[in-house]
Amino acid sequence: MEATVAKTSTDQKTWDGGNRPLNASYGKMMMWFFIVSDALTFSGFLAAYGFSRFKFIDSWPIADEVFTHIPFIHGNFPMYYVAFMTFILIFSSVTMVLAVDAGHHMKKNKVIVYLFLTIIGGAIFVGSQAWEWGTFIKGTYGAVETKGGKILQFLNTDGERQAITDFAISIPSERVTEQSNDGIWFQSESPRTSVSFEEVKKGFLADESLLIRTQYLNDNGERIILSRAESIAKLEKDGKLIVEGANLKHNEYGTPLFADFFFFITGFHGFHVFSGVIFNILVFFNVIIGTYERRGHYEMVEKVGLYWHFVDLVWVFVFTVFYLV
Amino acid sequence: MAHEEHNLAIFRGRLKFKSNVQKIWGVFILLSIITIIEVALGIIKPEFLTSNTLFALKYLNWIFLALTIVKAYYITWDFMHMRDEKMGLRRAVVWTAVFLICYLLFIILLEGDYIYNVYAENYVKFDF
Questions:
Q1: What is the pLDDT of residues A109-168, one digit of tens each?
Q2: In terms of domains, do B108 and B74 share one?
Q3: Nearest-by-Cβ selection for A22 from B68, B88, B108
Q4: What pLDDT does B1 receive?
Q5: A144: enclosing H helix or E strand
Q6: Per the CB < 8 Å rule, is A317 touching B68?
Q7: Does residue B2 surpass a pLDDT of 50?
Q8: Are A66 and A253 in contact (CB under 8 A)?
Q9: For residue B41, what are the domain limits?
């Protein structure tokens, strides 16, 4: 254990950082303190998420049912894609720390290769995040929102989810999405859902095998499924709106707050990854043109490395809080 | 910068590596194993871990949080080289963050649980 008592002899400068009690360079120390403040920002967000989750503990969406997609493959694969994203980010952390290590040994070419791999990993992660957002916004099965803002999802008697577009019976109507060039006073209209509530209701009443699943959880943490009679009563009494996918106001998977936090927290983290990639690219080119070779040390790689690892660190927590817990 | 004094042992000195590069790969394997365990538990969800709770959280969730903190420890200590820094810097960074985050989580989550109970057990619905 190192002693933490600072030497205060008179032969060296007392003020102006003369004693160097932390023995770290100015830049690295400031990067650490920035990381502390950023960590507190992120924990504020995650704590807010936890607050809302505890507040609606009996009706919060189950992540396994929300994030079930893998690019190019159809089917139900909970978690696999986020696990892949986590590996990408951890691996890019490894290449980053290898770049830092190569920098300590002044091996310019190795730094270049490892930094390049780090940038590629970061780009794959940001792309995956964008794809994940896209699938979440687009939605899967669609749902009905009640007058109270709760979500009703549809199952068949075997417990399999049914897409509203599959069972809705089309009702001929003239209603189309109006464009702003259609009328003089008309301003704008939000996009219309692919089926209307009346069509879904008609299809639901016609098909005896359909049931409604509420967003409330029973004691085992499973969603409560209504009987056929209860389902019909619920849909006729409370049903109001069709929801397809998720945005900041409506969310077919459950409470809109879940979508709000998802967009905000993963968006803020994705922005960090994006800016990290930009920093890495800047340092990458500086390494190539030999700036740090001339400077005599690769501390800049170490500093962006700290930031990059921090981004990975935050993702570890976001992954747990959003997808696992 | 000729500081090569990397601390090459993890698990409190039980696992020693020959070089810094080897340690990096060792830590990567450790982090991968932890992630695989997390994902496997998240997909299987063993019955005895989800049916019991401790302080309003299921056992499974406590395991996830513990594994996450283990991962965070190794990322900070080995990838960010906290193991090699002076104790003063380590404490200034880690203790500050850990203390403030624990405090924040404690008050915020307790408040969330309280509001849930107010919604569930009282007649107050929106106006408070």
A1: 999 999 999 999 999 999 999 999 999 998 888 889 888 888 889 988 888 888 888 888
A2: no
A3: B88
A4: 40
A5: strand A143-146
A6: yes
A7: no
A8: yes
A9: 1-84
